[in-house]
Amino acid sequence: MPEHHTIAGVATGSPDGGVAIIRVSGSEALSIAKALIMGELPAPRVLAVRRLVVGGERALVGVMPGPRSFTGEDVVELHVHAGARNVGQILEAVLEAGAVAAQAGDFTRRAFGNRRLSLDQAEGIAALIGAQTQAALDQARRLVAGELGREVEAVRQKVELLRVEIEANLDFPEDVDARDEARFAATAASLGEAVEGWLAGFERGRLARSRARVVIAGPPNAGKSALFNALLGRRRALVSATAGTTRDYVEAELTLEGRELCLVDTAGLRESADNIEVAGVELGREQIASADVIVWVEGADQSVGLSRDDHDNLNIAAGASLIRVENKQELGRRRPEWIGVSAEPGTELEPLRRAIADAVTLGGEQWIGLARHRDRAREASPTRLGPCR
Ligand SMILES: Nc1nc2c(ncn2[C@@H]2O[C@H](COP(=O)(O)OP(=O)(O)OP(=O)(O)O)[C@@H](O)[C@H]2O)c(=O)[nH]1
Ligand SMILES: [Mg+2]
């Protein structure tokens, strides 16, 4: 029998929902639940309405006897009306009946302890609950599904097989064939590549989970703020015919083809006698330097080369992409090789949207790569160990 107490906690996340689920897990779960409801417990894995002793409240009750439950222990779930007071009172009654309050992650820890989940799946559940972006959610789901675990296990088995073969050869050196040695080296190299592949996938996963910074920059009056608004579909930044309108940079979240971005509008780059404008340009330059993608905008009515110096001076980070855009294209194109847009009225933005989405799309496998995964993979990495000889 498990040595720990029966635990109880609210399993549902949102306090605003209509229903809350109180989960009880442990050897005493069934007797505790029995003490709380009027009548008999429902049959295993059948949800049934029961009246609770506490305030005559009605609850949907589900009984999942161990070991075929989430935690591997006897589990009872009470689906009750939500509301902090109601749920708090019922939970209090469960604790009075003999359960101990569950701490964050306790149910999952028990599931891991009872081998209902592997460690990577348990980690995946924590990552899934904490996921803030679509990419984080996708990656966490793959971890919960055990995809990374299966890959690692497949490689581990191959390592084991290779070790056995090499040891057999050490025992019988007279039977060692040069072809065997070549095969061992090739197998070891491919296993090393798998580990390197995970490390690269962890890095891609990290980038995909963070919001790429897409910074709109260019000379004053190019229509940067108008384009910023057009991409967002709302009036967020001031647009005016006065050059030097934008001073502080403006940030907004935007989702393009499923990828979440941080779109940034900046002050038009130019020399100025106005201290405040100079400070704004400085902020804009900092934004450009930390951008993953720079959308460089010039108006079709602006003379070519106006920003040539700026172009050269832009402190663009290694690996950042530069997308050149000619705005006000209805006035006649000067730079037909650039992407043409008309930020006002904001139609025909599709080619630019696609270019931004392409620039932030990361090809290849993406893994969640928690600190433990990265540490273990680095330990196994051939670049760390040196060449296999
Ligand atoms: N004809 C035309 N005018 C536009 C277009 N987009 C913007 N404008 C006008 O261009 C002027 C400048 O627009 P803004 O968006 O304020 O330009 P900006 O690049 O943000 O300028 P600063 O903030 O001063 O650097 C405004 O008068 C806009 O109405 C467009 O597609 N066509
Ligand atoms: Mg502006």
Automatic annotation (TrEMBL):
GO molecular function: GTP binding
Segment forming the signal sequence: none
Pfam families: MMR_HSR1, MnmE_helical, TrmE_N
InterPro entries (UniProt xref): G_TrmE (IPR031168), GTP-bd (IPR006073), GTP-bd_TrmE_N (IPR018948), MnmE_dom2 (IPR027368), MnmE_helical (IPR025867), P-loop_NTPase (IPR027417), Small_GTP-bd (IPR005225), TrmE/GcvT-like (IPR027266)
Superkingdom to which the source organism belongs: Bacteria
Biological process terms in GO annotation: tRNA methylation; tRNA wobble uridine modification
Domain GTP-binding protein TrmE N-terminal: 6-116
CDD domains, alphabetized: trmE, TrmE_N
Cellular component annotations (GO), alphabetically ordered: cytoplasm
Domain G: residue ranges: 213-316
Boundaries of every MnmE helical domain copy: 119-377
NCBIfam families on file: small_GTP
Protein name: GTPase and tRNA-U34 5-formylation enzyme TrmE
Species this chain originates from: Enhygromyxa salina
